[in-house]
Write a structure and sequence with these properties.
The protein is an all-alpha fold. The chain has 2 helices and no strands.
């Protein structure tokens, strides 16, 4: 009987050994997957960083466009105001009706 118990214990040990090899194999596979996942996440992080940099650069350029548009618009308004004042002064000097020149300034754009 002791012999059978020893054989049974040996078989249990073999089964445990087989299971531990299977566990080791699966842990190795898990390590490979985790490594690939880490690599992909690093790539994604770099891509997102690049995307953020592109977005920030585009936003800066938009700000430059906005400044240019505002600057040009202000220059046109100033020019229009000066033209309007000039026409009013000219009208006053030549004694024309002021309304005629004021209505003309709308077409100076």
């Amino acid at each position: 009987m002791a012999y059978l118990q020893t054989v049974l214990q040996g078989l249990k040990s073999l089964k445990i050994e087989e299971q531990s090899r299977e566990i080791q194999k699966r842990v190795g596979q898990l390590g490979v997957h985790i490594s690939k996942y880490e690599d992909l996440m690093q790539r994604l992080g770099k891509s997102l960083g690049t995307t953020v940099n592109h977005f920030n650069n585009a936003h800066k350029e938009l700000g430059k466009i906005d400044k240019d548009v505002v600057k040009n618009f202000r220059a046109k308004i100033i020019k229009l105001e000066l033209s309007h004042k000039y026409l009013i002064n000219l009208a006053n000097k030549t004694k024309f009706k002021r309304a005629t020149f004021e209505s003309c300034s709308f077409y100076c754009w």
